[in-house]
Amino acid sequence: MTMTGSLDRRAVTAKLLEDRGDLLVVTGLGSPSYDVMAAGDHDLNYYLWAAMGSAATVGFGLAMTQREKPVLVLTGDGEMLMGLGALASIGQKLPPNLTIAVLDNGHYGETGMQTSHTGRDIELARFAEAANFPWTRVVTDMDGVADLRARMQSQSGTSFAAIKIAAENLPRALPPRDGVHVKNRFRAALGLSTI
Amino acid sequence: MTAVPAEEAPSWQDEILPILKSFDVRHLVYVPDAGHASAIREAEKDNGITSLALTTEEEGIGYLSGAWLGGERGALLMQSSGVGNCLNTLALQTMSRFPLLMLVTMRGDWAEFNPWQNPMGQATEAALKLMGVRTWRADQPEEVAHLVHGAATMAFNGDEACAVLLGQSLIGEKKWVK
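Output (structure tokens, whole complex):
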């Protein structure tokens, strides 16, 4: 059985980033990086292009240092599956300003749309629940996305959402690939020096 | 079989955390090993440091990258077997250049009882170098503080990945009893 959702990933991303304020964003490699770029480049976006499985841990470290700002990790189901242990590590600290949102289409979209584990009825939100995240959701409509956005901006507890999006490859919006540049402009926007 | 616990941590272990603190390290992230026991224990008691156990070592690379984005320094502690888990994730450091200080206790290195530790232990330093990490080796107690200070200086002043390998002869022979 292959399960997929119906939400438009670009509409979901645009909604989450609406009136973003102080929001700090980390994206997982592949389509989530393109989705965030398509919604508009921003100095407080940190795009990953590799290190698959690391989006959640990068966002975790950021949330543990910028405690007053909301942090969003936006990644895909394949990327999250590669870093499932990170949910257990996050569960030990549960920074209330951290939200992990998985754009879950049940497929490996970058490599030919092979079915992923979540497309075979493995539900990521249950791993987050097992890791003691106080708020976990499976989001299947735009009202759920609006609820997630409100929760994220309120910084009222570590949150995890698996957002069921349609399995489709949209035109790519490529973020900058110069990691040093992206890092330095992110830090500069927070008032931090380069080294 | 059970491992005989170390009766008392040698003094070089006690030197590590104060050096890290002198570099304003605020995050100590680790997969535990006996050689890191003192630094981990002291960090757990220190309100100025966030100590964090990882399920696998490469989580520490992501975490410290994020902590640096947010303005704070950290260090990653692991056993040599964990270096193998880190290799692909080290691209994050290479491409974005953030300070990554790694302290690695060695297995499969000297008087190893368990031969299954030898393949990764023997490849540890070469694997780190292949991924662009600068390495130093401490085999004598008096070398530890000196080399950790040097590696931290180059990591934090140069946005580089630097690893100090703490040799198995320094840590001591792991005794196994039936």
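Helices of chain B lie at 11-22, 37-45, 58-69, 80-86, 90-96, 118-130, 141-158, 168-171.
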